[in-house]
Structure prediction request, 848 residues.
Amino acid sequence: MARNYMLLPKHRLEAFSDAVLAIVITLLVLEIRVPAESAGLGHALLAEWRAYLAYLVSFAFVGGWWIAHNNLTRFVRSGTGAFFRFNLLALLFVSFIPFTASLMGAHGGDEGSRVATMVFGVDLLLASLTLSLLGRYVANNKEMVEDEAARADVRAFVRGRWWAIGLLVVAVAVDAVSSQTAVVLYLACAILFIFEPLIPRRSNASAGCGPG
Amino acid sequence: MARNYMLLPKHRLEAFSDAVLAIVITLLVLEIRVPAESAGLGHALLAEWRAYLAYLVSFAFVGGWWIAHNNLTRFVRSGTGAFFRFNLLALLFVSFIPFTASLMGAHGGDEGSRVATMVFGVDLLLASLTLSLLGRYVANNKEMVEDEAARADVRAFVRGRWWAIGLLVVAVAVDAVSSQTAVVLYLACAILFIFEPLIPRRSNASAGCGPG
Amino acid sequence: MARNYMLLPKHRLEAFSDAVLAIVITLLVLEIRVPAESAGLGHALLAEWRAYLAYLVSFAFVGGWWIAHNNLTRFVRSGTGAFFRFNLLALLFVSFIPFTASLMGAHGGDEGSRVATMVFGVDLLLASLTLSLLGRYVANNKEMVEDEAARADVRAFVRGRWWAIGLLVVAVAVDAVSSQTAVVLYLACAILFIFEPLIPRRSNASAGCGPG
Amino acid sequence: MARNYMLLPKHRLEAFSDAVLAIVITLLVLEIRVPAESAGLGHALLAEWRAYLAYLVSFAFVGGWWIAHNNLTRFVRSGTGAFFRFNLLALLFVSFIPFTASLMGAHGGDEGSRVATMVFGVDLLLASLTLSLLGRYVANNKEMVEDEAARADVRAFVRGRWWAIGLLVVAVAVDAVSSQTAVVLYLACAILFIFEPLIPRRSNASAGCGPG
Prediction:
């Protein structure tokens, strides 16, 4: 424990991140408008498909981000101050999603569509990138993980995410041509992040145990 | 622990689910409008009984869902990736409740009433079904539970919920005839879920202990 | 542990209650309107003193309720289903506070003032009463606490709250004469709940330890 | 443990504070308006830079406050009632930030600018001061920390924050001359709080372990 004197316990980093992600994922529904029309309510509801799609993409993305964050922090014993600060930066981009998603929902069908989907895509990209960089930081800081095997596990986690991030870059670029296709690609990326296989752990890190 | 290498610790699944459910149950109150009338405020408040009823049904349903989720996860040691993803799907339907409840609250008394209560009921049904399927998934994955007794406990949990889900199906069907009766049946289902008896555990799973 | 087979672990009850209370206490600030006037903004801000007072009373009340809930659950080892359900009922009244507080904030100075402060006060009263009854329930259920000393501690907790609840009853009654005085009494009750001394524990319950 | 009889477990104080801070940091984004203009959406978005700046300053401040709170509570074993009450007071000022930040965002460019940035700055100052006083309280209460070394650590924590608080006082004073400069100084303070180095622990407090 001698080297541990500048480390913060990880249970609050997990609790704080879980709460931020839970709020982001739940706030998204507040952006969906209840139609005022009573006659033809069914049609009015269906006409809002853009808002539901924005909700679904965002929910899937935040959900996948949360699983990846779980996947990463189970290898961490305790965190440096920089780890906590870096995690805050990653959460900054995630907590911006309710704004960028409602921007996309509001302007998806009009002249502002290209700008709106671009802003949304760049936000997803920054949130994904910072999480991968957070993983690299963990892999480069021996005192935060149990042993060499755990470091290799974290490196595998980071490697396994590059291609989905590459697809996000493509999606943002595609937005210059067609914002509709870009949204479909965002949904694809979000689903890929959710179904990204977990890293088989070689290390003895604390999965299955309580916080800490 | 050898088989455990692809499992995620359950304490974050519980913390995240608790936060999502706490937010959903608390956001519901934001849908109730403060009347602008100052003379006759009492009457104006009573005239909003539909909004209170929507609040009560939703609160009871989410509360009962939370207790059932507790009832289930106490048998789980740690989760596969699929368990985490399936749990997200179940939370998707729960986090949609503030929208469907406010839809029902807004259109309960007008032409849109049938559609609105139908959407609300289908949402409750999907949230209930996915939780039961989550239970089946746990029962079918030996590495997530302690022993055979715990699997039998989880199977009893799943079996004990079918009749309330059946009643929800009836309630949604009844909506085609009378949306008023449907709402009363939704309330009945929500209360039944809350008062559903806990499963007597035969296993030695970690109830009464800390997370994990 | 033989008797423990129908009990749920308490760490999720605490996590869920903490999240609900944190959301309620934080949502309250959303009810305060940003004045549109730019000239004389200072005066416009001061003119909203009713909203700040409603915020302060509610914050103090929810904060005190949270401390009392902490004070109670530290004696509990694990909960029956009824304990979880009763706790939900108590949270129902607490989570109604953002609505009743903004009702009082909006109508504090007009004809609706009496009704608005009455509704707010009755909400505080029901939230306080259900917490005390939750305490009585704990005291009457041997399997939820460690030993006889813990039961005596919980009984002392319940006894120590009756007089503040009595004062709340008086405040609600006073509202029939003067809603201004009633608000002052609500604030007094909220502060009394916050400063209510903790019960000196005779038992060896798990204060100072982790969840569980 | 004999002296422990009036202490509350710290895990709920941490969970409650984490939830409040997570909500505050996430609610901030709701204050940013989605522009209604579809032609020239890009320009309309850029024109809202004041709202983004308010978001960034607040996010950085709340994030830094959370890290400092982590830094402090890791030295605490369990809390007195006064510690819990004092922590609530500090959270009161933090949970007021969504209101004061949106006030600053709304009036940053008009006649009300001086008052709005002043109110925001005083809120940050009170939130910072109460956290430092909370640290002093811990340092003065032997029964809350492990040993003398931990008390010295907490005293170092408190000392290390005075200069950033001094800068906040300067920023509030500068607002009388230029509210623009004041906002820049608030951002500087927020960033300083985030990058404030952790205290090297001499004590054996529970960093790296689970709650408790």
